[in-house]
Amino acid sequence: MTDTARTPGSWAYRREQRGELLRFARGSRGAEGFGYLDDGGRVDSGRPVELYVTCRMTHVFALGVLAGEEPAPGGPDREELMALAAHGVRSLLEGPLRDDEHGGWFAAVRDGRVEESSKQAYAHAFVVLAASSARTAGVPRADELLDAALRVQEERFWDEEEGLVVEEWDAAWSVLDSYRGINSCMHTVEAYLAAGAALGDRTWLRRAERICVRVAGWARDNNWRIPEHFDASWQPLLEHNRDEPAHPFRPYGATVGHGLEWARLMAMVHTAARPSTGGLLEAAVRLADRAVADGWAVDGHDGFVYTTDWEGRPVVRARMHWVLAEAVATSTVLHWATGEARHAADAERWWRYAEEHLVDHEGGSWRHELAPDNSPAATTWPGRPDAYHAYQACLVADTLGAASFAAGVERWVR
After folding, report:
1. pLDDT digit string (tens) for 274-303?
2. Given 117, 204, 263, 308, which is the most exposed site by the fewest CB atoms within 10 A?
3. Are strands 119-120 and 158-159 parallel, antiparallel or unpaired?
């Protein structure tokens, strides 16, 4: 392959994509954080400002600062990227998303008022991720934000006995929901890896490793399809949300993209935690192989289905952009970690699909959801809410061997 911007997955192509993603994402800035974007790159006024979106955008803009991205036409330069990242940090420290009375962060606000008051492990993991990346990028007050975010992890979410995180509290931290979830654990692994790398503190790495070992065990016992939902005693709830199979955060059955994402994270933990326990690299390969076998082009069209049942039969056949982005990242990491050429071939295949079906060269960003025939759709993910998955897919090849994207870019730049 020649390294030109016309070759999907090449260095020039990925750099051009990152610049365009940042150009599109800059439109998310609002008074209270970063908003959910529609297909045209405008904030969707029908949605509140959500904690996870604000954190993801802050993380991406901080990575843009570190990478010294070349601006796309009309896109932000390094100075503006720093301003955007600083706006995110400031919003998380001073804005209405932060609960000054009880601590932690609300899930969503609108016009200065709290719209969703729950304290979610999923969204709080992204506070840690945003703060870690911002700290590495030298964003003002990122240290303050990271300290606050890790205190909340220590006091409210981390369960030392289980080696996992609990899911959701009420606003006053007085009532803990009985549901336990793998999605929040997954993003907590990512956040703990980033925090450990930013601080040079292996406590967070070891906790990430403990989570991965538990999840690998559940997957191994379930033919490498990860149980997603659990009760308060961490017993799997395999029929959870059967009546809402396309739920954006808690769908029924096995989530193909999570098999891929866990594979990448386990490979990263294996590398960072050496000597590691639990056979995480082997688990990563098995998870990725299962996800590809169950999910890729299983219904007559290219693309990954969203979910399957516990026998691997498709349930929700929509194609989500984030699943393809994670496939790119996972195959890239597994090629580096194992040296097996098949993973590189897979990454090239995923990039060709992204170029053909997901990258919107006219409107900007990536289409977030496609129908089973790969036409645009908006059943589960209307709009193009954030740049997190796509940007990381375009950056991962430049960060191999690092515990986090920010640590990898910092090493590369240095």
Report:
1. 876 679 999 999 999 999 999 999 999 999
2. 117
3. unpaired
The span from the CA of 262 to the CA of 283, in Å, is 9
| 152-200 residue pLDDT tens | 999 999 999 999 999 999 999 999 999 999 999 999 999 999 999 999 9
With a cut of 70, say whether residue 2 has pLDDT above it: no
Rounded to a whole number of angstroms, the distance between the first and last alpha carbons of the chain is 28
| Domain 17-413: assigned CATH number | 1.50.10.10
How many residues would you count in the chain?
414
Closest to 365 measured CA to CA, from 347, 348, 390: 390
What are the structural domain ranges in the chain? 17-413
Catalytic residues: 258, 389
* Contact between 305 and 367 (Cβ < 8 Å): no
- For 137, half-sphere exposure in the C-beta direction (CA atoms, 13 angstrom radius) is 35
With H, G, I as helix, E, B as strand and everything else as coil, classify residue 50: strand
The model carries a pTM of: 0.97
Mean predicted confidence (pLDDT) in 2-6: 61
